[in-house]
Design a protein that fits this description.
18 helices, 6 strands, alpha+beta, binds fe (ii) ion, single chain
Length: 433
């Protein structure tokens, strides 16, 4: 028989094991959830949210150390998944102290501590009480940032909280370093593709800026359709590179001022296939694997009369169908050496005539809803400094189809408001500013 004292010991041990068990479960959950997130912004928000919840605190902030600028920075939530950066010198305030010394600070009452900077409270109307601040180390034991948890509910932070946070911070630091690495990879692929695209746009002086505008129109269309971020990223790369195959077309054909002979037109028609060949040599990660296919199908038509493969309907990737529409829209609405842009209502007559044969009706429907202001911003990108922002904002209130409908009306049957918005639109469309 176990004595009373032994029983007490046993209960204590069981309690302790249960506590340890809970702690491990929490850590496992955090590890799983953090490893799944590769994008730095989203990861930081996830960490801040989960840690505040686990420690039963009001707020958690992760400050990251920017070695080059000797600053600490963090993201402030601005609506869902949108962040605004805040930065300050790496030796300022409590977070700065921890970043410099590596000390763990557990402060029950912030206002009693001389290192606390009450300015931010004053500005935001927030009232800081307890603070737990801890350095974040990478595997090489360098400080990469600081965890700061505010206002524990029901009393100050305990030693248990400190231990738990120390364990979480190891997991978080690894996840953050992975995300930073990923971020750098994304940025370098991004700048590589941007440069490639800009090179192409520079060479093709007749259609100057075409790839860039096609990309922006495609993204506007994507927003109108509410597609997800991953698809948008594929669309962006495909848009930037859709005509990269033109690099292989001789200048004598590409820049010919006269009408092309049938043979020359056959040469031009090779470019989407060359785009596919070039892009399939770039190693795209799994999430981006459709980029070459989307880019290479921008001259396919819904009814199967396009090129290079004569794909039909659903055989054409949806992204290819989107770029097909905006590619034609840009060709008709950009100036060439010997002509100005076509009147918008004429452009739209052509689009409507080709809907269902060349263009996917879903793309056309969505395009109609793009704000007129966004279209102008893309079309006249090079002259953005000359925009009157109030006018552009006003044009953001109207979908492009409304402008087209007003243009189609006889001038005498337009309302004064209609005439006014049309005048604003035309001012930019005809570069009368
Ligand atoms: Fe093309
Ligand atoms: Fe194009």
């Amino acid at each position: 028989m176990a004595s009373q004292g032994e029983k007490g010991e046993l209960h204590k041990k069981i309690d302790q094991l249960e506590k340890e068990n809970r702690r491990l479960r929490v850590l496992l959950d955090v590890a799983n959830s953090l490893q799944a997130e590769l994008e730095l912004d989203k990861l930081l928000f996830k960490i801040m949210e989960e840690v505040a919840e686990i420690l039963d605190a009001d707020r958690c902030t992760v400050f990251l150390y920017d070695k080059e600028r000797n600053e600490l920075w963090s993201l402030v939530a601005m609506g869902l998944q949108k962040g605004e950066e805040i930065r300050f010198p790496a030796d300022k305030g409590i977070a700065g102290h921890v970043a410099q010394t590596g000390e763990i600070l557990n402060i029950p009452d912030a206002y009693q501590d001389p290192r606390f900077n009450p300015e931010i409270d004053k500005k935001t109307g927030y009232r800081t009480r307890s603070i737990l601040t801890m350095p974040l180390y990478n595997k090489m034991h360098e400080i990469i940032g600081v965890f700061q948890i505010l206002n524990k509910r029901n009393g100050p932070f305990t030693k248990d909280d400190e231990n738990l946070l120390a364990a979480i911070s190891q997991i978080a630091a690894t996840a953050i370093e992975n995300a930073q690495l990923y971020d750098e990879q994304v940025k370098s692929l991004d700048s590589f593709i941007e440069t490639l695209s800009a090179t192409l746009d520079t060479r093709d002086y007749i259609t100057a800026g075409h790839s860039r505008r096609v990309t922006e129109y495609t993204l506007a269309l994507a927003d109108a359709m509410g597609v997800d971020e991953e698809f948008k990223r594929q669309l962006r790369y495909a848009g930037l590179l859709h005509d990269i195959g033109k690099l292989k077309i001789p200048e004598s054909v590409l820049f010919k001022a006269d009408k092309l002979t049938p043979e020359e037109f056959e040469i031009i028609k090779l470019h989407p296939q060359v785009t596919r060949e070039i892009l399939s040599k770039i190693h795209f990660q799994r999430k981006l694997k459709d980029v070459p296919e989307i880019a290479a199908t921008h001259h396919e038509r819904l009814d199967g009369t396009g090129y290079p493969e004569g794909l039909k309907g659903e055989e054409i990737p949806f992204g290819g169908r989107m770029i097909c529409l905006v590619d034609v829209f840009d060709a008709l609405t950009s100036e060439r050496q010997y002509r100005d842009r076509a009147p918008l209502e004429k452009v739209w007559d052509i689009v409507e005539k080709e809907t269902g044969t060349t263009f996917d009706p879903r793309c056309v429907e969505a395009f109609k809803t793009i704000p007129a202001g966004r279209i102008i911003e893309i079309m006249e990108h090079q002259r953005q400094e000359d925009f009157n922002q109030a006018e552009i904002e006003r044009l953001y209130q109207v979908p492009i189809i409304d402008i087209i409908e007003i243009k189609r009306k006889a001038p005498e049957s337009r309302t004064p408001q209609e005439s006014e918005i049309l005048e604003t639109f035309d001012k930019y469309y005809w570069r009368d500013y």
